[in-house]
Design a protein that fits this description.
Number of helices: 18
Mean pLDDT: 94
Helix content: 40-55%
Number of domains: 2
CATH class of the largest domain: Alpha Beta
Structural class: alpha/beta
């Protein structure tokens, strides 16, 4: 074992008490972090099911949704195998259960401790593995290579910030990348950054998220809600992050909403109550999606406090404000909104989706704003401009259609027997 990986492994073992404390801390707001804790250390006594397994790792919600078309393609091509789907977050696990039900087996991927990784691989003995997006775990990758197991990194994206972090890891990251059976990247820029870190060969296949199937039931329900609101403009602030709701609501207080309904959908469920408090303390009438019922005429804000319903919220809106882009979070996925023909307003921070965001703006499917003070009146004006919204809708649909096909390109790179 290289000295760098030995030291890396030692740090993981020394961090075990901190890992447990972190689970406890996160469980204060999200109790799911205290369930299945042994799995995080490679113990799967409560997991039943027999393979042969093709293993797919999707860290959280976004990666799990992105993996959906690939998982269905794997199931179709390899009907004699079962899919083992691993996660790192409870919300990812919940999303996987909602998308796939009993057609896959779910569990947590263990922390990157050599013994835990060995127990995981020995328990399931996957014939091949697929890591979704940027999941570079040196001990896991080394252990898979030692077992001659094909392990791929697909739909990879690597921002300049993440590249700088991996560059500091030096040989640790380089050895891991070289031990993978193959890498597919979302963009030419992502591929270039991976090669600079030492990846020997990277294929550019596009973004799997353009191939995600739109759930018809959510779209129908969202359209019904939109119809029930009549002529009221509907804005959705989608996948908002900590601090953004405060800025948005401050902009609402200064500029007003008129008769519009603002739908706020926080990215993380543990923040639902905190966001509700931010709304009520400002004297704005609030309703929760989880409470169901008709939206009252004087309701200013609908809190999207349900999981796995992003398409519902997009279908119900006229204009989408993209969360994660108005503070330095790098933005969230805008593809879902474009796929439903919804105009998108982006903030200044989109480094997680640079190419997709720039392409959507160039195509006329999205607009940029410096902050919520600029974005809110822009959204209200756009919501009332039927012709412009129609043009942006057509641009969004054409944009997503032109970028589809990543699933088949990735499948061509996976040499699974």
């Amino acid at each position: 074992m290289r000295l760098t990986r030995l030291l890396y492994s030692l740090l993981w073992y020394l961090a075990t008490p901190l890992l447990l404390l972190r689970l406890l801390w996160r469980a204060r707001r999200q109790p799911g972090y205290l369930r299945h804790v042994p799995e995080r250390f490679g113990f799967y006594g409560g997991v039943s099911g027999t393979g042969p397994w093709i293993w797919v790792h999707a860290v959280s919600v976004g990666e799990t949704r992105a993996a959906a078309p690939l998982i269905r393609a794997l199931q179709a091509r390899h009907p004699g195998h079962r899919i083992l789907l691993t996660h790192m977050t409870p919300t990812g696990r919940e999303t996987g259960a909602a998308l796939f039900g009993d057609s896959v087996l779910q569990c947590y991927l263990p922390y990157d401790q050599p013994c835990a990784v060995a127990r995981f691989l020995e328990r399931f003995r996957p014939v091949a593995g697929v890591l979704i997006e940027t999941e570079i775990w040196p001990n896991l990758i080394h252990a898979a290579a030692a077992r001659r197991m094909l392990l791929y990194l697909v739909n990879a994206r690597l921002s300049p910030r993440s590249q700088a972090g991996y560059r500091r890891a030096g040989a640790l990251a380089r050895d891991a990348l070289r031990a993978l059976a193959g890498i597919t990247a979302q963009t030419v820029e992502d591929a270039s950054r991976l090669r600079e870190l030492g990846a020997p060969a990277v294929s550019v296949t596009g973004n799997l998220k353009f191939d995600v199937e739109v759930p018809a039931d959510q779209v129908t329900a969202g359209c019904e809600l939109r119809a029930s609101l009549g002529t009221r403009p509907v804005l959705v602030a989608a996948s908002t992050r900590d601090g953004e709701e405060t800025l948005l609501l401050d902009a609402v207080q200064r500029g007003g909403l008129g008769d519009a309904l603002l739908v706020i959908v926080p990215r993380h469920p543990q923040r639902f109550d905190a966001v509700a408090a931010l709304v009520t303390v400002r004297g704005l009438r609030l309703q929760r999606r989880s409470a169901a019922g008709t939206i009252a005429a004087d309701t200013a804000v609908l809190l999207g406090d349900t999981l796995g319903e992003m398409y519902f919220y997009y279908a119900a809106c006229d204009v989408a404000l993209l969360g994660g882009s108005f503070l330095q979070y790098g933005g969230q996925n805008l593809i879902e909104a474009c796929a439903l023909g919804k105009p998108v307003i982006l903030g200044p921070s989109t480094y997680n989706f640079t190419e997709a965001a720039d392409a959507a703006v160039t195509a006329g499917a999205a607009l940029r704003a410096a902050d919520f003070e600029e974005a809110l009146p822009m959204a209200l004006q756009l919501a009332r401009d039927v012709e412009r919204r129609r043009a942006m809708a057509q641009a969004g649909l054409a944009f997503t259609e032109s970028c589809s096909g990543a699933t088949q390109r990735v499948m061509q790179c996976l040499l699974i027997g």
